[in-house]
Design brief:
Layout: E1 4-9, H1 22-34, E2 37-42, E3 45-46, H2 55-72, E4 77-80, E5 83-85, H3 90-95, E6 107-111, H4 118-130, E7 134-137, H5 144-148, H6 152-159, E8 162-166, H7 167-171, H8 176-187, E9 193-195, H9 209-219, H10 221-236
Parallel strand pairs: 1-2, 2-4, 3-5, 5-6, 6-7, 7-8, 8-9
Helix pairs in contact: 9-10
């Protein structure tokens, strides 16, 4: 599959636990381009213990990457975003433009502690919705209490939350438990995005084509296109994705 869009990546260098340098960023972008990825939303962590990159600094880093890509004719569109760790006071930070939404849209990629209680996650999602954001739950398969709740994913979607899973969880590289959970929600059409969550070139590399092909064969080409292109394009265009 070509023209794949990756909405969750840690390619911007030196700002979190992803790429450590511009050279490493370029290696990851070359890998992504070779894999058929045509656009990437850069989502550095906005999380306690990590440096929170200001908007102007991120813009500068993105422009530098674009210049380096142009020199090598790497044709990938880059967009700004962030992966927001939900915590007390985050809405005030959003209001002060200290949190970067996805491609300047109303969509916000949000994560929680893997062991967080389901009620807290549900409440956090609800609070974002009431402020006008379209929350995307990052790597939903990681939250043990969401996975254990029988109607957990269904309830979050009914509220207006979008679900993102990692490609490695689809293919089984993240373990059997994650794969089984993701398989169960893919069957129900409860996944809206599959992304790399790329941090490097080894453990979590920016590759999606094998996963896109697998989902196309297993669940249909139309669904695969929605996950890897149509829905991401709606994020970039700030269009409402019908749940």
């Amino acid at each position: 599959m070509k023209n794949i869009i990756d909405i969750h990546s840690h390619i911007l260098p030196g700002v979190d636990d992803g790429a450590a340098s511009y050279e490493m960023s370029m290696q990851m972008l070359r890998c992504a381009a070779n894999d058929g990825i045509s656009a990437v939303i850069l989502t550095p962590h906005n999380k306690p213990g990590h440096r929170h990159i200001p908007v102007f600094e991120m813009m500068s880093g993105v422009e530098k990457l674009r210049g380096m890509m142009a020199e090598e004719a790497i044709e990938i569109e880059l967009y700004m975003g962030s992966e927001v760790y939900y915590r007390s006071g985050i809405l005030e930070k959003c209001g002060k433009d200290k949190v970067i939404t996805m491609a300047k849209s109303r969509y916000l990629l949000v994560e929680f502690h893997p062991l967080e209680e389901y009620g807290y996650i549900r409440g956090g999602i609800y609070s974002l919705l009431t402020e006008g954001y379209f929350p995307i739950l990052a790597h939903a398969e990681r939250y043990q209490n969401v996975c254990a709740e029988k109607s957990g994913i269904s309830d979050l979607i009914e509220m207006g939350c979008y679900i993102q899973v990692n490609a490695d969880s689809v293919t089984g590289k993240s373990g059997l438990k994650a794969r089984q959970f993701v398989k169960s929600i893919l069957k129900k059409g409860q996944v809206h995005f599959v992304a790399t969550d790329a941090h490097d070139l080894k453990k979590r590399a920016p590759r999606l084509s094998d996963c896109a092909d697998f989902i196309g064969k297993k669940y249909g080409g139309d669904y695969s296109r929605k996950l890897f292109f149509d829905n991401p394009m709606d994020v970039i265009g700030d269009n409402v994705i019908v749940l």
